[in-house]
Amino acid sequence: MNKKIIVIKSLNGGGAERILINFAKVFNKRFSSDQLKIVVLLKEGELLQQELPENIDFVYEPTSRLNRYLCLIKLFLFKKQIARQFCSENGSYELISFLEGWPDLIIHSVSDVDCKKISWLHCGFDLYSSLNPVRWFFNKYAVQSSVINCVSNYVKSSISNIKNTKTVYNFIDIDYIEQKATEEAIDDPRFIDENKKHIVAVGRMVYQKNFEFLLRAVKEYTKHDSAIVLHLLGDGELRKSLEDLVTKLGIEDHVNFVGFVNNPYKYIKNADLVCMTSHFEGLPTVVIESAVLGTPVITTKCGARELLELFNFPNEIEFDERVYASEIAKALTTRFEPIDRTLFEEKFSFDNFLNNMK
User: What is the pTM of this model?
Assistant: First the structure.
């Protein structure tokens, strides 16, 4: 098996980053860790709080917001030197950009090496604005890759003009998810209140996740039923504005800011419902993880339909707070059939994921 060198921008607590870390942990158990190297361009993100695989190299470590911009400038100016230092190996190997954007720039900055270059696209390309640097890097560099792996058919359709593409569902470590879900008890008194229905939302507090919409939908729901608590698992730049909105809406008793947690699975497992209100997604990992744990999910029209149909969850919902609130009520009173484990093993297996890295 050829060595794999995987490049990713950072270790923010998003789905793609978590998938890569879980993949590396399983890879290291099954193969020699020398056969895999992960190059992280910026040493930042919530996942740094976790126990990380040994085969990770960090390029730059930002010390402030200004320094972060300087690090990005250095990535652009010294891309060839960085690529030669971290991404050049003797012999045949695969050089992989795991998350579109900066990693594409780096892997295509070396042209005289014997390796196959693979790019990954995690989001519908049509959702990137024409001024977004990710779009520029992708159009200039990723299209030169031997193949572009798309995390869903929807994402693949967004670059239908490009021929060297295929759909590769993300790897989901079912055993790990099930183990973590029962590993430890939840001691949050707001979550274990049996007199309430508990809904969970997972993600970084950024524009994409659209948590403001979810808070307004919860406000609508509480007009008819006050026995509900929304637990927000995650952190990010918009947390303060979301906390202010909770106060403004008067729903402090119905929202619990849990923050970033290393183990979201115990919350998902014990929730009555998982809510997603993103503006856009590629293949939302939390939908799959929730399905593994037997917790239903409702989502906005964000690109999750492919998974919702696969798991027989309710269809995507319009961006209307009242409609979303009514769908919360409906989902909380609906019985969902358990999903056969073989479905996850067939669609989201480690071997299928690994085989598409060559």
Answer: 0.86
